[in-house]
Design goal:
Helix content is 34%, strand content 19%. The strands form 4 sheets. A 3-stranded parallel β-sheet has the order 4-1-5, with helices on both faces. It has a two-stranded parallel ribbon with strand order 2-3. Strands 6-9 form a two-stranded antiparallel ribbon. It is globular and about 45 Å long. Its cofactor is Zn(2+).
């Protein structure tokens, strides 16, 4: 994958009622979690923002009937800096985050992705940061690395099948159609970034598959 000139990202950890785009030229690293090792809280990801790209995103969203505003003070939540610290540890690529109006469901995220799809032709990498399953109450922190709960695998496999067949209607109604949907996602926010990435991209492929703690999906998908 060529080095992008900038990254646009939707994270499960910036929920909002409306669409908001981060216009902070130098977002701080927000350790928006608790109970982990001190080393994690010491991590910093000092990637810059890109206010001119923020303005372009707002214009594209508005032109597609999706009004948005700018937040010039937003930090990077861990849904942004954790994956990017592994992908681009030098933190030298500008990053602009778009918020997640999580109560408006999957269809909106598909629309947002499609509105911003043209940025990919301008060297911008579009990322949705969430999880294919996310029920923290059902995790086994002592589970063997190869242990996978059957319900989690069944849900993941259903999502993959619908992505491969491009069944958008089923994907948008996953909560009533997918097996174990409510168990896999007691709330929507960790699956919704998938719809953003799919909306912005093209052909689906699987870059990585796996679970940790028995039921936390760690899959990575591409939409080229």
């Amino acid at each position: 994958m060529p080095r992008p000139r900038a990254i646009v990202m939707v994270s499960a950890h910036w929920e909002s009622h409306e669409l908001i785009v981060n216009g902070n030229p130098q977002p701080e690293t927000w350790h928006d979690f608790g109970g982990f090792a001190a080393e994690l809280f010491a991590m910093q990801y000092p990637a810059p923002g890109l206010p001119e790209l923020t303005r372009t995103i707002v214009e594209l969203l508005t032109a597609n009937g999706l009004p948005a505003r700018i937040d010039s003070r937003r930090p990077f939540d861990h849904g942004v800096w954790v994956p990017l610290s592994l992908m681009y540890p030098q933190a030298d690529i500008p990053v602009v985050q778009v918020s997640l109006p999580s109560r408006q469901g999957p269809a909106l995220q598909t629309q947002v992705g499609r509105a911003l799809a043209g940025l990919r032709e301008q060297g911008v990498l579009v990322i949705g940061s969430g999880s294919i399953t996310h029920n923290l109450y059902d995790l086994d922190w002592s589970a063997a690395p190869d242990r996978v709960e059957p319900w989690a695998a069944e849900f993941r496999d259903w999502i993959i099948d619908k992505l491969q067949s491009n069944d958008e209607a089923a994907l948008h109604h996953y909560r009533t159609q997918a097996p174990h949907a409510v168990r896999a996602h007691p709330s929507d926010e960790h699956l919704l970034p998938l719809y953003f990435a799919r909306g912005a991209g093209g052909a689906f492929s699987i870059a990585y598959q796996g679970f940790t703690m028995g039921a936390l999906g760690m899959d990575i998908y591409r939409f080229d």
